[in-house]
Amino acid sequence: MAEGNEKGCVCVTGGTGFLASRLIMKLLQQGYAVNATVRSHRDGSPKDTSFLTNLEGAPGRLRIFVADLDNPESFSPAIEGCVGVFHVAQPMPDLEDPEDDDEAKYREAVRGAVRIFELCVKAGTVKRVVYTSSESAMVFNDEGAEVVDESCWSDVEYIRSSISREKAYSICKTMIEKAGFEFAHKSGLDLVTVIPPYIHGPFITPQCPYSVRLSMAWIFGDNDPIIEYQSVIPFVHVDDLASAHIFVFEHPNAEGRYTCCAVNTTLGELSAFLSTRYSHKYNIPLIKVSKEKGFKYPKESSKKLLVAGFQFKYGLEDMFDGAIECCKQRGLL
Ligand SMILES: NC(=O)c1ccc[n+]([C@@H]2O[C@H](COP(=O)([O-])OP(=O)(O)OC[C@H]3O[C@@H](n4cnc5c(N)ncnc54)[C@H](OP(=O)(O)O)[C@@H]3O)[C@@H](O)[C@H]2O)c1
Fold it and tell me: Is domain 9-329 given the CATH code 3.40.50.720 in the classification?
């Protein structure tokens, strides 16, 4: 066991991502050793992981493994010997074609995720797997609920017929989470899932993360962020979300799904908040009515997580202040 590794070793997939990198930072702070998986560049050259290897506690406790979801077996060396696995890696929908609805691709994505869960069982040391799901696997159905929680599931056929944005991503997240629980039920794997809404806040990645760029569209002067289509816009601070992942990993009685939403805001509230706080620096439009058609976004309840004892630390101010500061440091604002 590596020096200073008090809590054992855990694997975090997608280590170069927004959430995973903050999760790795927190795990190291809390005494874990971490096996982080990262992808290579398309030409096979290694990615710059110095923002991870320079983290406090990383020397001697952080190991970087190359693994790609296109080849699920590649995750095996990173999982071996671990007490826990945080499966965070997922292609994000930034360049998604709205017409892109490919059954074979979904099956492949599900097969890949389930193979990773199988590798966790095979390792024989993994006590619990925490999978990062998405609100996309919870909110999209025709039930019209005003408030949703982990008892709700998105309906793949409804997404296919009625949701135009991030369709393939939402279908994948729904299918993977469902297949994960089916596999866990059959195999005895202790699988817990965390369901985040928009993740926002400070970042240590060299690039501005997809969801931060989206949430900051008005700050960047863009007029058509995806959130303009939502009547309710739910957010969680990346550090609260990382803490919630560790919380459900360590909680002796954690089971099933956990919604992790700190703030349900509306388009009007968000626009007013941003105008009040930042209009002296950025040209924030005052928008009161969403462009929403068809699907009515619900609020998200994190009651199950709160009843289990978790506490959110951060609000919208921390999310936007932290993200703006990081964008400034990288010369993006
Ligand atoms: N951000 C949000 O608002 C949001 C909301 C709900 C749920 N989630 C979920 O939260 C998790 C983390 O999201 P994030 O915002 O941190 O996303 P992110 O910054 O894009 O990170 C995703 C990670 O997955 C990796 N990845 C993508 N395709 C891969 C592949 N084929 N093989 C191996 N790794 C691959 C990426 O690697 P590269 O760095 O090499 O690209 C990246 O490290 C995801 O599971 C996502 O579905 C996110």
Answer: yes
Distance separating alpha carbons of residues 96 and 196, to the nearest angstrom: 20
Enumerate the H helices of the chain as residue ranges: 18-29, 50-53, 76-79, 103-123, 156-162, 167-187, 210-215, 238-250, 267-278, 303-307, 316-329
134 CA distance to ligand 1 middle (Å): 11
Give, for ligand 1, the residue of 11, 13, 19 to mutate: max count of ligand atoms closer than 8 Å to Cβ: 19
**Distance between CA atoms of residues 169 and 145, nearest Å:** 22
> Rounded to whole angstroms, what are the CA distances from 222 to 33, 81, 96, 271, 292?
41, 46, 19, 13, 18
Nearest CA to ligand 1 atom 6: 134
pLDDT digits (tens, 9 = 90+) for 297-326: 999 999 999 999 999 999 999 999 999 999
pLDDT at 265: 95
Q: Which two tokens stand for residue 57?
A: 């506690």
pLDDT, tens digit, 9 for 90 and up, residues 219-245: 998 877 777 788 899 999 999 999 999
* Residue type for position 285: P
- What is the full DSSP assignment across 134-147? -GGGTS-STT--SE
Structural domain spans, the chain: 9-329
The string of pLDDT tens digits covering residues 53-97 is: 999 999 999 999 999 999 999 999 999 999 999 999 998 776 566
Which token pair is 2?
Answer: 């590596």
Angle between helices 18-29 and 238-250 (to 10 degrees): 60
User: Which protein residues touch ligand 1 with a CB less than 6 Å away?
Assistant: 14, 16-20, 39, 68-70, 88-92, 132, 134-135, 173, 196, 198-199, 209-211
